[in-house]
Request: fold
Amino acid sequence: MSNPNRWGIAAAGFLLQMALGAAYAWSVFRAPLAKQFHWSISEVTFTFTISIFVLGVSAFFGGLWLNKRGPRVVALTGGFLYGLGVFLASFSADKLWWLYLSYGLIGGIGLGFSYIVPVAVLVKWFPDRRGLITGVAVGGFGAGALVTAPAANALIQSVGVLPTFAYLGVAYLVVTMATGYFMQNPPNGWKPAGWVVSATQKAQRATKDYTLGEALKTWQWWALWALLFLNTSAGISLISQESPLFQEIAKASVIVAAGMVGIVSIGNAVGRIFWAWISDVLTRRWTLAVMFLLQVGLFWILPGITSVLVLTAVSFIILLCYGGGFGTMPAFAADYFGSKNVGPIYGLMLTAWGSASAFGPLLIAHMRQASGSYASGLHVIAGIMAVSIVLPILVSPPKAQKAVKEEKLELVGS
Reply:
């Protein structure tokens, strides 16, 4: 791989993320596990909670390790742990703690290590298309469940739920190890032939590569964390209540609501690529502002929709924006802090994902219980989105200390 094709690396990164995104198909295992071992739905669901929380934490450490040992080592280690964790879950019969340890902890560490690698690698290979390529990278994660859910369901029906973990664990191991091998950084100073930074791109990019410590000292890092937290909180609040919400608002049957969930989930995958691509043209900050503005209107009108078709379309667009946050933010971080250390810088930023995964669902569940309907909770989210629009409009690239001093000297001189 002395002269690798950057599009080949992008394809490998997409396939790697698809294997990792299979974690989003956890709901397929929920009922069979609860039925066979007499665990409660909340006990089984906690496995997924552990996995996603650990993903957010381990992505940060994976980003730090990536800078020291290179992306291939981190990707292969993560892929091995992810496949191993899922495989070991096949020995969870009547041992809930083992399911938490294997699928939740071991698998979650593997998820985090591997998730950050394509993001960190591809922003370096595609400085000319940062938004599009990070959207493609994490788009695979959003699409993973679309492929895995029907396959896992078929396996559960034919061989049982625990053997399914064994089969899938081996499959994940093969795919992640094969694709992880292709993860490598470009040579120092590399850039696409003939590419020149445009004036618009230059105005929205940092003048140097920041270390993690330097990035954390800027208000912009915390602003980007807040942007990811706010956008994720809105989308995941809907995701957490999709089926019962559709049944209550549009009077959909259980079967119809399940079909609606499947359709709108496609928006999560498509939005990661669509909005990231738009952000290359519109800039990251205005793309986030448009997404927030859309969600203000959509969340506000959601409680009054009675048509199944219209409710599906509105929910699809909300999930489009939810996925768009994950597609756009890695490029946003690379723009503001440079691509060199984007692994640890964006890896730590992913803690916003875990925080939002707790805040959003708890908020809408509490509001539903307190008021007796989803209307108040959805309107509160619309209000939060309205206030949040100010943030992407105000945020701008951090300026290096040297540039700040030069500006002060010019002001004094004038």
